Amino acid sequence: MEAERSVLSVPGSRPELFEKAMRSEADIVFLDLEDSVPDAAKDRARQSVREALRELDWRGRPRVVRINPLDSPHWLDDLSAIVAGSEGAVDVLILPKANGPEDVTVVARVLDTMEARLRLDERIRIEAQIETARGLATVEAIAGASDRLRALVFGPGDYAASVAMPMTAIGTFDRWDEAYGGSRLDYPMQRMLVAARMWGLLAIDGPYADFRDAAGLRRAALRARALGYDGKWCIHPAQIAVVNEVFTPTDEEVSWARTVLQAYEEAAREGRGAAAIGATMIDAASLRMAERTLARARAAARPSGERERSGES
Ligand code: COA
Ligand code: MG
Q: 180 with 280, same domain?
C-alpha cells in the first residue's frame, strides 16, 4: 500500500502556487484542469501544467493531473497537451465525473495509443471520481473497468448537486445534516468504498471547502477514516496537517495491532486459532485487521521524498 493520505489540489491556471504545493507535506499534489479553471483559461492552464510536468521538482511524488470530464469539450485536448505534449511526463490522471465504465475505457484506450507512440514503458494510472448519480449507480463496474485504475475518489459537492441534496458548501456540515439525523453521505461513501476494495483500489474522500474550519475538517476526515478510506483531498495548505494526522494510525492503534499479532502467534504455536487478550477474543480475523493497521502505519511512515514513483505499485 502506498500513502495517499493528503491530496492537495492546485488550480492549473495558477502556476505561482505550484512550487509552494510541492514544498508542502501533502502526500500527493495534483494540478487541476477541471473545475478550478474557467473555460477561458483552459489553454493557458494546459501550458503551465505541461511545463510543470517537465520541469518542476515533484519531490519524489507521482505527477498527477486532473483532466476535464468526458461530457465536456475539453478532455481530448487535455490528453493531447498533458500526455503527448509532455512526452509522457505524467504518472496519474484523475478523471472527474466518471459516469460509467466506458468513460474509463475510452481514456484508457487513448492512453494505449499515446503510450505506444511515445514508446513509454510505464503505464499511466487513472483515479476516477465518483460524484454523480450515474457514477454511483455503476461504481462497481467503473472500479473494474481497467487495470490502470489505482483509486476511486468521492466528490461530495458534485454528488450533492447531482442528486439534488442541499449542501451549503462542498463537503461541510450544515443544518441539513441535523435535519437528516444520521450521516447523509454514508450511502455513497460506503458504496464507493466497497467497490474500490472489490478491485483492490485506494478509496479517497473529496474536499472540505471551509479551509479555516479545522474542527469541521477533522470531523469530516474522521468520518472517512472510520469507514476505511485511505485519505482526503485538501484545497488549502492549512488542511494538510490535520488530514495527515487523521489518516495515520495512532500509537495506540499500532500497539494494539502488535499485541494482537503476538497473541495470535503464541496461540498458533499452541495449536489454537482463537485466544484471549484479557477479556477480548481474537482469531484470524483479528490478525487480518491488525495487519491492515500495520500496513497503513508503514505506508504513512514513508516520507514523500523517498516514495518511489507511482505506477510500480
Ligand atoms: N496550493 C498551493 N498553495 C496554496 C493553495 C493551494 N491549493 N491555496 C492557497 N495557497 C497559498 C496561497 O497562495 C497563500 O500563499 P502566500 O502565503 O505565499 O501568499 C497561502 O497559501 C495562504 O492562502 P490564503 O490567502 O489563505 O488563501 P487564498 O484566499 O489565497 O486562496 C482558495 C483560497 C480556496 C482560492 C485557494 O486555496 C485555492 O484555489 N484552492 C484550490 C482550489 C481547487 O483546486 N479546487 C478544485 C479541487 S476541489
Ligand atoms: Mg467535482
A: no
**Residues 51 and 197 reside in one and the same domain:** yes
Tell me which ligand sits closest to the C-alpha of residue 8: 1
Atom of ligand 1 minimally distant from the CA of 211: 34
- Name the residue with the closest Cα to ligand 1, atom 8: 236
Same domain for 255 and 129:
no
On whether the CB atoms of residues 141 and 165 are closer than 8 A, the answer is no
Question: Domain span at residue 150?
Answer: 6-247
pTM higher than the cut 0.90: yes
- What SS3 class is residue 224? helix
Which of 231, 247, 263 delimits the end of a domain?
247
Decide: 17 in ligand 1 pocket, CB within 6 A.
yes
> From ligand 1's centre to the CA of 170, what distance in Å?
16
285 within a domain of the structure (yes/no): yes
The three cell numbers of residue 124 are 499511466
Distance 242 CA to ligand 2 centre (A): 22
CA of 232 to the centre of ligand 1 (A): 17
Q: Which residues pair with 31 in a beta bridge?
A: 10, 65
The answer to whether 282 and 276 have CB atoms below 8 angstroms apart is yes
Q: Is residue 1 part of a domain?
A: no
- What confidence tens digit (pLDDT) does each residue in 10-34 have? 999 999 999 999 999 999 999 999 9
